[in-house]
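Table 4 source record.
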Amino acid sequence: MDITQSFYDNMATQYDKLFLDWQATTHEQAVILERIFAEKGFDRAASVLDCACGIGTQAIGLAALGYSVTASDISEGELCEARERAKKNNVSIPFERADFCALSDSFDEKFDIVIVMDNALPHMLTCGALKKAIDSITGQIRPGGIFVASIRDYDALLMTKPPYSPPYIHKTAKGQRVSFQTWDWEGDNYRLVQYIIDDEESLEVSRFECEYRTIRRDELTKLLEDAGCTEIEWKYTEDSGFYQPIVVARKL
């Protein structure tokens, strides 16, 4: 089991604590994605693959709006959590354990839209690994379909290489919850430690460790072009409302 899979397996039951209100976030993010889909000519009849679904944040929100959603992830722990959350939200989503570097091993069909959100692509720690992922993901998109992904704004972060992220402080009915990350840089890669501190009826501290490689927008744009995509467009928070930059590309 690699460090990425372990990170998400271990954090699966606590991932929703990163949000003030996970349930509300599923709807908010689905509305943002739907607006992007509509701009590219797709309505709720479109088929969607969420190939890094985690606990279902985007997949469940989109399914609740009426999209036909298939979801996959490398983490069985997160898939178990996602299945339970889909049931509680009364949506039907096929969940598959799949590596987004080899999606054709798990899926025969192609989709109108494939999404890979929440900074999943930077888990690819080399240029070659990222290329393999992009080729795999775009390979599951029908001609004329679209690729949608979000990553951190690494073009800005690489200018200062900060040692930590600003904390999120969420007030709860029983106290507060604080989450933040520390970043230990080595070149363009960094080791991330995610802390979640529950300061409610009792104090609980959780720690999860992973590794990322920064991806500049030009690098990802070029890989999408090489994979046969056009109309490549970057959308920023001030325009999209999403918390990370989003790239959208159409598959030829």
